[in-house]
Amino acid sequence: MILSLLSLMTPFIIFTCSFLMVPVLMLYVKSSPKRFVISYVISLLVVYVLTQWLGLYLITIALIMLPPVLIMGNLYKRKAAARSVMTAGIVTILAESLLSLLASYAMGFDPVAKFKQFMIDSIATMPAGIQEILPKDQDWYVGFIVQVIPLYLIFVALFLTFVTHGVTRWFLNKTGEGIPGLRPMREWMLQRSLVWIYLVAFVLDLFTKPDSSSLISTLLMNAMPLLMLVFAVQAIGFLFYVAHANKWKPILPIVAIIILVFMPPLFIVYSLLGVFDVAFPIRERFKKNL
């Protein structure tokens, strides 16, 4: 834990920040509550002594990461399903983000306005070559980035939770804990109600001006990429199912993932395949044809 916090002061921060919750979560699962509190407090004191005033910044980050650790750790101890653990972690991180924004506004600090000004200043200091690549209307571009802040927060919560669960589970299982994992991807299936949400959002998006600053436009800017990602993942799960049903090696879904990484515009195609997989009994018909 001490090393993970101190790593935030090094050039490796981009890499290590993804794993900040891992050592704390492992400590919580493997320790009694009393031992965890003592170890946690001592670790924070050591970090403060070693870094002086920068220690306050590191301690703040550690405390922010504590609630999702406690919630996920309690679920781990109960041997809860991986889906429940990850859902709880994601919701906790998002709730913390929302509470932080509300607290900032209550104290008279506007983080969104500060972020917007930071973006404007950053663009102004960029080399001319990079500025030419960006949209000519910089006010619209900055406004768009600000509008999709909720989407960024959701992606960050998803990423941190997935990484934390994957790495922590691997280490804990090595010590004999037996933490449940996610079901195989070929068995993943979204709720059918999400199909209707996707279709409604898709139709509304067709008739909404992209430069609009209305509430519905902001909601669609955040909802559509998230829904497309979710159904694209569903499509990959379907391809894993096809490969498994035919007793193939998982080359088909792996190639599909590689293609999607290098050709992001195909997200719409993949998401539509995911919609069909959820909305229609494709898998049942596929079974009958085998």
Automatic annotation (TrEMBL):
<feature type="transmembrane region" description="Helical">
    <location>
        <begin position="86"/>
        <end position="109"/>
    </location>
</feature>
<keyword id="KW-0812">Transmembrane</keyword>
<feature type="transmembrane region" description="Helical">
    <location>
        <begin position="254"/>
        <end position="280"/>
    </location>
</feature>
<feature type="transmembrane region" description="Helical">
    <location>
        <begin position="6"/>
        <end position="29"/>
    </location>
</feature>
<dbReference type="Pfam" id="PF09991">
    <property type="entry name" value="DUF2232"/>
</dbReference>
<feature type="transmembrane region" description="Helical">
    <location>
        <begin position="41"/>
        <end position="66"/>
    </location>
</feature>
<feature type="transmembrane region" description="Helical">
    <location>
        <begin position="188"/>
        <end position="207"/>
    </location>
</feature>
<keyword id="KW-1133">Transmembrane helix</keyword>
<keyword id="KW-0472">Membrane</keyword>
<protein>
    <recommendedName>
        <fullName>DUF2232 domain-containing protein</fullName>
    </recommendedName>
</protein>
<feature type="transmembrane region" description="Helical">
    <location>
        <begin position="140"/>
        <end position="168"/>
    </location>
</feature>
<dbReference type="InterPro" id="IPR018710">
    <property type="entry name" value="DUF2232"/>
</dbReference>
<feature type="transmembrane region" description="Helical">
    <location>
        <begin position="219"/>
        <end position="242"/>
    </location>
</feature>
